[in-house]
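Contributing: when you submit paired examples, paste them exactly as shown. First protein:
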Amino acid sequence: MMLLRQREVLKHANWRVVIIPAVLGGAAGRALAIDASPELLIGVLGGYAILVGLRLLLVKPIPERDDVSHEVWTAPVAALSGAWAALFTQIGLGYPLEQGSLLLALYLFTVIALTALVVGKVWSPKLNHIVTLIVGPLLIGVGVKFLAQVL
């Protein structure tokens, strides 16, 4: 969504700083995760969920502006680049993608994109704050549950 709304602003970003670390991180993470145990992956996901939940609750979000680019705005682009790198790494290492997983990913992408388009019309800083106060504790709770399963 940011690429659609902030295209002109993002032209001035330093893409080497954004894309290269994301691609390297996505590829390395996927290569390591292929042989990792499910318990380790659930533990890492739980820790990550807790950290993201805390970040949502403790760090004030930066609002979008039309005039000045901010490095934080490039995070979704970096995450997408890392995801593509992880996907191609998995294929490159000889682990094929299952059709069910691809269909689920396509379904989720479609639902999330359509939701973002609809919600984008009514999104406001107040709604952002409300959603943050709901999602942050949920992520912390899910992370604690995942870590409890592993430990």
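Second protein:
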Amino acid sequence: MLNLLKEFIVDYNCSYIFLILRVLCSVLLVF
């Protein structure tokens, strides 16, 4: 159970970082 939760958190963090990178790229393209 704990292992599954840890895996989910890691996956969530990775997707969150990816989202931030996409937003940063969009902002850089605008400027």
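If you have annotations for the second protein, write them as plain sentences, like these:
Residues 1-30 form one domain.
The first helix runs from residue 2 to 30.
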